[in-house]
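I hope you will forgive my troubling you with a question about protein structure. The matter concerns a single protein, recorded as an amino acid sequence and a row of backbone structure tokens. Please examine both parts with care and let me know of anything in them that strikes you as inconsistent. Thank you for your consideration; the sequence and its tokens are set out here:
***
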Amino acid sequence: MSPRYRDLLLLRGRERPRELLLFTLFAFAASITLIWAWSWNARLNDYGLEAATSFAALLHGHLETFLQTAPTYGASLLVRAPFALPGSLLHGGTLMIYRLSALPCLLAIAALGVWLARDLRRAGGSLLSACGVLAVCAANPITYRAMQLGHPEEVLGAAMCVAAVLLAQRGHVSWAALALGIAIANKQWALLAVGPVLLAAPAGRWRILAIAGGVALALMGPIALESGTLAAGTVRLGASSTGLIFNPQQIFWFFAQRGEWLPKQGILIPHTVRVPPAWLADRAHMIIVAAGVPLSWLALRRRTSRGDALLLLALLMLLRCWLDPWDVMYYMAPFVIALLAWETTVTRSRPFFAITATLATWVIFRYLPEHISTDFQALAFLIPSTLALTLIAASVYGLVTSRRLVGPTLPHLTRVPGVPS
């Protein structure tokens, strides 16, 4: 009997149907609770201000109006529209539509949690570790913040990017490409996941690019075409301008001037706040995507392990937060989930780093702003994030081994067949 077939039989023997059912029920209950337990301010959060009107037009069949007024993440609303349609047919209000449109986003991340928890248990991980994995996905304060601010699509993007890498690692090239295409259409920062997915795939990289590109184009193309010109559509979908939004938790904070009178806008920016430099306002998001290209190329060039494609994804998603002047709490979701998937499926360790990153994110973005100045907020973000970027990059590019980074793994853990070493 071949070792691979023997491993498959052992894994089948470890299946726990009741446990899987409990994981699924918990994940579903957590998603429903997160959606319905709070009365989200859906009229005044970003969903209400940016998307509610155009989404209502779509649900009422006014497709042209939707395409002309859709926000940068309009393609995400197209994907989520079937879930919100029943609420529209029942004449539900803005809050009802928002809740139903968020449902597929939360179910996607919850389903990923079930997948990762089951995967860890099949490899011999403890029930407590598996529950920790599930909790990070299905009951995360970062997800709560995304819902509060009106951006559940960020959670959907995190789930689809990580799922694309996992599917590519297991050789499901077409499914990986489909997930990647949906992720890119959902939010364009998912372009950073292209390199990790290509690294994870054992073959068929051109097929991944073709299918993912086709899916993204099919969902985003109509919105771009209704923007008048290709240039206008590109700017609209890419949200290239950051305007006056300039948060402390990013690398450019100390390169900017302090608040001042802005005659064009007719507003006074307080001295404790900094305004983005003119050279950055229209280039920040392009810099982020451009930075991902050489980093992904270098990983491919150095023959980084396909198993560490998830770690490369975590690196790029944290780099996005590091470089984005718009950086807010929910931007950390893709980084945390990618790190969790790497710990769970590759190193087979407890989800220590993912839980630590979640707690640190809450402290830096929610607790500290109420107690320290904006300059110290910037330092509180830059010091740990720069250290994390350095350690992750050292592991991805072979300067240190993953084992040395995480220490000893849980006892008696095995790799699921199809996950590369």
Q: What stands out?
A: Confidence is low (pLDDT under 50) at residues 1-13, 407-418. The chain has one domain: 3-406.
